[in-house]
Amino acid sequence: FLSSNLKDLISNLNFIPIDVVGEVSCGTPSYAFNEISKSIALPSNYKDCFALRVKGNSMNKLFKNNELIICCRNKTPIDGDIVIAYLSENNEATCKKIHKKKDKLELHPCSTLPYEIQYYDKNSDINIIGVVLGSLTDILDLENIDIEDLEEKLNTI
């Protein structure tokens, strides 16, 4: 967790703390838990976001195993978005590309390895808890944030 001094400095830099709430499977859905392990700092326009650490290789065209991804909880997913899908029946979650069909949802892997598409009836107990905006590295590049520059500013406290 961020110390109060660090939170104050980040706030002055127009950054806010984003919680890393756990891990998400990028393969077969697995046990989902909400355990805040730490916080990271992102620009304040990411206030509705959370971070997860990806596990597995079924999304390896986009994310490396153990990479942090940034997810928006208040964005409505559209066909082709990368999402965090929560299957409440088994308390499981997975990260996949969503395709909405007339009577079903398809969760597609984005992998160099052969993974199967997961199919769900639209009436099944599946909830999209976040739309993935990208990896932490992608977001920092998009926002033109130089990590070394940020660390230098933080070290001047």
TrEMBL record:
InterPro entries: LexA-like, LexA/Signal_pep-like_sf, LexA_repressor, Peptidase_S24_S26A/B/C
Matching Pfam families: Peptidase_S24 (PF00717)
Boundaries of every Peptidase S24/S26A/S26B/S26C domain copy: 20-132
SUPFAM superfamilies in alphabetical order: LexA/Signal peptidase
Superkingdom to which the source organism belongs: Bacteria
PANTHER family membership: LEXA REPRESSOR, LEXA REPRESSOR-RELATED
Protein name according to UniProt: S24 family peptidase
